[in-house]
Amino acid sequence: MSHLVAPSLLSANFLNLEKDIEMLNRSEADWIHLDIMDGVFVPNISFGFPILNLLKKSAKKPLDVHLMIVQPEKFVSEIAATGAYMMNVHYEACTHLHRVVNEIKKHGMKAGVTLNPHTPVLLLEDIINDLDMVLLMSVNPGFGGQKFIENSVEKVEVLKELILRKNTQTLIQVDGGVNLDTGKRLVDAGADVLVAGNFVFAANDPIQTIHELKSL
Ligand code: DX5
Ligand code: ZN
């Protein structure tokens, strides 16, 4: 499988989201990545259900929801109701991760677990076979446009080894500071899905930029 690209709407123009969604619909983007922040788990607040429910109507790509919130288990049915394809919860926010993952799947969504930059990949050893995706943060979550943390490339390699050893189909997604240089190195290391916010939306020609990320 060639890798997927999931532009993050966090860097879009919030005064004219419809225009950016139409651009993504026309582009080679595979998914649309949606960053939900609560001001508690991360030091920022982004957007919530009113926006997610509007996106469902105009977005023609699967919605990949990244919850940077405490107690994400409280919102599984609300996220499912937005039509989300993938629900990502942070490992660091879930005491009963196995239960949350099963709830997500019961609600008909794919289950993703996200790791902060300091969280070792091997902590997922006993749950990796239940996961549709692992999202590795390559910046500290909370803001777009941050500098890529180099150690993330090695984390992709370690995670790939774990996935092969456990014989699962779990996807590896990477989020934060992705551009053509870091993206290429991540794909070569085994990443299946690249998230890119600032690199896509600050570009003069986002459609061409998405094409270039797809062509890595
Ligand atoms: C950061 C978010 C990212 C963010 C990535 O907390 O999870 O999805 O939008 O932005 P860039 O690609 O600009 O680093
Ligand atoms: Zn994200």
Characterization of the model:
This protein is an alpha/beta fold. The chain contains 8 helices and 8 strands. Strands 1-8-7-6-5-4-3-2 form an 8-stranded parallel sheet. Strand 6 (133-137), helix 5 (151-166) and strand 7 form a beta-alpha-beta unit. Helix 5 (151-166) runs parallel beside helix 6. The chain is globular. The model has no long low-confidence stretch (mean pLDDT 98). The chain binds D-xylitol-5-phosphate (DX5) and zinc ion (ZN). Residues 8, 10-11, 33, 35, 66, 139, 141-146, 175-178, 195-199 line the site of D-xylitol-5-phosphate.
**Mass-distribution shape:** globular
C-alpha-based Rg, rounded: 16 Å
Total strands: the figure is 8
Secondary-structure content class: alpha/beta
Residue stretches low in confidence (pLDDT < 50, at least 5 long) are none
Kindly, what is the distance between the CA atoms of the first and last residues, rounded to a whole number of angstroms?
Answer: 13 Å
Biggest sheet, strands in spatial order? Answer: 1-8-7-6-5-4-3-2
Instruction: Note the run of SSEs as H and E.
Output: EHEHEHEHEEHEHEHH
- What small ligands are held by the chains? D-xylitol-5-phosphate, zinc ion
Number of helices: 8
Q: What kind of sheet is the major sheet?
A: 8 strands, parallel
Residue share in helices? 25-40%
pLDDT averaged residue by residue: 98
Strand-residue proportion: 15-25%
